[in-house]
Amino acid sequence: MSDYANSVKIAMLIFSILIGVEWIVGVVLKKHVYRVFDTVTSISSGMTNNLKSILKLSVVIISYQWMYDHWSFKSLDTSWVVFGIAFVGTDFAYYWSHRFNHRINIMWNRHIIHHSSEEYNLACALRQSISGITEVYFFLYLPLAIIGVPPQVMSIILPIHLFAQFWYHTKLINKMGVLEYILVTPSHHRVHHAINKEYIDKNYASIFIIWDKMFGTFQEELDAVVPVYGVKKPVKTWNPIVINFLHLFQLLKDAIRTKNWIDKFKVWFMPTGWRPADVKTKFPIEIIEDPYSYHKHETQSGLLLQYWSIIQLTLHFFMQFHLIFLLDKVDFIVLLLYGTFMFISILSATSQMDRNKLFLPLELIKFLFGYFLIIIHPEILQIFNEYALSSWACIAFLFSSLIFSIYFSILDKKELQIN
Q: What pLDDT does 414 receive?
């Protein structure tokens, strides 16, 4: 099992506990922090990102190891000073990659998922991308490779730096005194996630707020301007896989529709939100001009669908642990098939929350894929060295899930329409 997979497993447990604590504190303080479907979407997004990372489903153009092997002047010792240099250097690289993701049209598709929640809580921190299948920001780490920061140091620093960005996604912590001048705090990051004109495209830093102050992108949270969260072009879906590619699909449509051949190229690299003039006039899209009058996305649902969505989320959560357990026990192709099944299951469950007409066919695909996966590769049912899940129990659950989907597709929908 890789060190990264181990760190993911530990982070999943810690994050889940902290999300539960935030929810309880919100209830006690009578503050509305979580909505069921929004939370399911956030956690499901984190799971899809974990799947991509654990199964290494991305393309590295130039690896840090390669830059280190070919361009480093010397190899530094793995001292605390070197770890500190690596952490600060990583934070500097994150600032610029984050800023590029916000400011360049095509790069925004890599990051839109993280800003798509119209809430601001610890769960929304888990909205991480699966659309960034190529690692394009390798050049930002070149200075660290040149001075000789060893790859094994970076392999420790990178997940620590990523996980350290979780805690400040909350509305329950106010300004933090002197720390506001040094670190990224919940107050700073609330500004970053807001779509108010005073806050848009501010506070890109991940750990040290000094980068924003140095490069002119800092904005303090103002008492008179309450943050409104989300994206200027609302996604209006609970499906994290769809959200990951919404902006890319919009750019592709604009590139095809415009009559200007230069604009067909420009649209990808212009500032985020830029559209060709002819397309913008002929095919307008909804943009939130007044955040305070905007109503958050909702879909019609009964309590049963909300409970069923939570049950499926819980199942997906344990399946992630199961996949990590199987990493060194089954062939990679089996892991890839298992991961594909999980993607289909998450796609189906969140499409169900959307009341999307495709969720029933997706559930049927999930049933058939899961059935044949269990029959052909029963080794995926192993849960301990000498124990395995019952194949028939798993197939029975898949069948019951299909029955529930038929109910939500037909009967439950009719009942809601009547009420």
A: 56
pLDDT of 249 reads 97
Task: Using the structure block, give the residue that is written with the tokens 């194949």.
Answer: 391
Residue 78 banded pLDDT, cuts 50, 70, 90: confident
Predicted local confidence at residue 301, as pLDDT: 81
Using pLDDT thresholds of 50, 70 and 90, give the confidence band for residue 357.
confident
pLDDT band at 419 (very low <50, low <70, confident <90, very high): very low
> Alpha-carbon distance 343 to 240, whole Å?
10
Asked if residue 288 lies in contact with residue 294, where contact means CB atoms within 8 angstroms, the answer is yes
